[in-house]
Here is the input.
Amino acid sequence: MIAGLNLAKQSKQAASAVAQKRFAHDLIVSPKTGRTIIRTGGGGRSSSNGHVITVFGCTGFLGRYLINRLAREGAHIIVPYRDEDDMRHLKVMGDLGKIVPMEIHLRNKDSLEAAIRHSDTVYNLLGRDYETKNFSFSDVHVEAAGVLAELAQKHEVDRFIQMSALNADIDSPSKFLSTKAEGENLVRSIIPSATIVRPSAMYGQEDRFLARLAMSRGLSVRINGGITKVRPVNVSDVATAMHKMLDGHNTVGETFELVGNQEYTYKELMNFIKETTNLDIGDINVPKPVASLLAKVMNVLPWQTLGADEVERMMIDDKLTGAKTFDDLEIDPTSLEVTGIQYLRRFRTNLYNDEPLKKGVVNKKKVFHTSYL
Here is the structure.
């Protein structure tokens, strides 16, 4: 009897000894609502960072990278979706019960509110590269952003992070960019503390940037003579930056322009793709009116093609406006010259698949180094 009591006492003492201690750095107090967010556990996906986060647009290109980073810290993540098949790959990124799928429709306000009401942070990654018969640029970039901001304000969401685009401008000839700017202004008028993120063209494994250039064989990149300047950014760097904004109080109410560390023309990018893939890509220049007409004709096809507004965007140089950048988040963006081959190797034929990248000068100032291969 006494031995049993001693054993029980020792077990209780052992359990007490391993009980987690709480420290000041485990507590986060929201500057907006005063809400206290408490971290528990030793870190990792099976612990909790105290956040409940809704990520609209999570089934898109950037969404999987952002959710992967959030889930690694044990956040509870609401995954709004329209098609169940589009979000299945997200469910395994978090621990059991941490990824919560919720079916929504942009024109069903109740479904949007249900996805927000329990969250302390909302990421709005919703966006369209082209218009469809169901949703225009304005529907997605302006009206939907405004509704989400209103609902977030109603439920006192601590952080609202709005995805926009580099070169967003009300007066832009591109409807995509003008509606992105309208969306920014609307969100800021409703939530002044919202963080606006303007990335340049993003590249990665499932992108519509490098992959399109590699498959285009000259058609899309020779618009405007291939002299349009771009600063492509790795999607992983953008996801890392947006992850840092979760608890970064210095990002509240700020605008960030996230671009790569090097500027290229489309012609220079095409030369790099040629060297990387060993594809004989043509140098045909297509005048803008002809390219726009072809894009409109191709849009009747049942699969996604180059849109007329995308042709317009390929005429606009990437420009920074003085907003905050990766430097303010202490992030050093990766180089396309180093990482590009990871995403372009699949376009090689079996004859060249395992060959190293050949050294080549893109122009007098830029050389693509291959010492990493």
